[in-house]
Amino acid sequence: LLVFSLSGCPRATFAGKKGKLSGDEILNTKFKTSDVLENDEEIKQLNKEISELNESNSEMEAAMVKLQSQISTMEKNLKNIEEENKIIEEQNEALFLELSGLSQALIQSLANIRLPHMEPISEQNFDAYVNTLTDMYTNQECYQNPENKDLLESIKQAVKGIQV
User: Fold this and answer.
1) Which residues form a coiled coil (predicted)?
2) Are 44 and 90 within one domain?
3) pLDDT, tens digit, for every residue of 93-124?
4) Which has the least CB within 10 A, 82, 84, 109, 164?
5) What are the helix (H) ranges across 20-145?
6) Kind and range of the H or E run holding 158
7) Residue 138 is part of which domain span?
8) pTM
9) Are residues 57 and 91 in the same domain?
């Protein structure tokens, strides 16, 4: 059995001599106690910053959840408003068709009745004709002469069959 020893090896002897450091040399090494303390302070500071970032991230995540909830609510409200608008548009369309039918019935009923200073009723003068009729019925006291009374009675009879 062979036993090897480092004591006889010239490289080991040189490495051993080189490995012995004096007290001053130990203080000059990279791993001084003050460096370790500085590193410890830096680690504490980094840990504090990490903690602050985690807290900030948590707050941001909570804000995002709240924002997503608000967006979801707004989208639901928008969908409801769009549905309500569609219903209103359909109702307006139905009312427009009804109004169109009523105006055609009024034009047909009053086609033979001429108002003073007006052409016979038509689609072109429909609004003016209706305004004149409205004025005649609102201010009947101005139309008390027999000719106007007959005209108002003829209009009443002509529109009597129109159902609103």
Assistant:
1) 36-98
2) yes
3) 999 999 999 889 888 888 888 887 888 888 89
4) 164
5) 23-27, 33-109, 126-138
6) helix 146-159
7) 111-163
8) 0.51
9) yes
| Pair (86, 124) in one structural domain | no
CA-nearest of 106, 122, 102, 103 to 155 is 106
DSSP assignment letter at 100: H
Q: Who contacts 72 (Cβ-Cβ below 8 Å, separation ≥6)?
A: none
Q: Write the pLDDT tens digit of every residue in 28-59.
A: 555 555 556 678 888 889 999 999 999 999 99
Alpha-carbon torsion angle 89, 95, 101, 104, nearest 10:
-90
Structure tokens of 54? 């985690």
Q: Do 129 and 110 form a contact (C-beta atoms < 8 A)?
A: yes
C-alpha 74/C-alpha 85 separation (Å) is: 16
Query: What is the identity of the amino acid at 133?
Result: L
In this structure, the answer to whether residues 47 and 91 fall within a common structural domain is yes
Indicate the burial class of 109 (C-beta count within 10 angstroms; 0-12, 13-18, 19 or more): middle
Contacts of 113 (CB under 8 A, 6+ apart): 120, 121, 151, 154, 155, 158
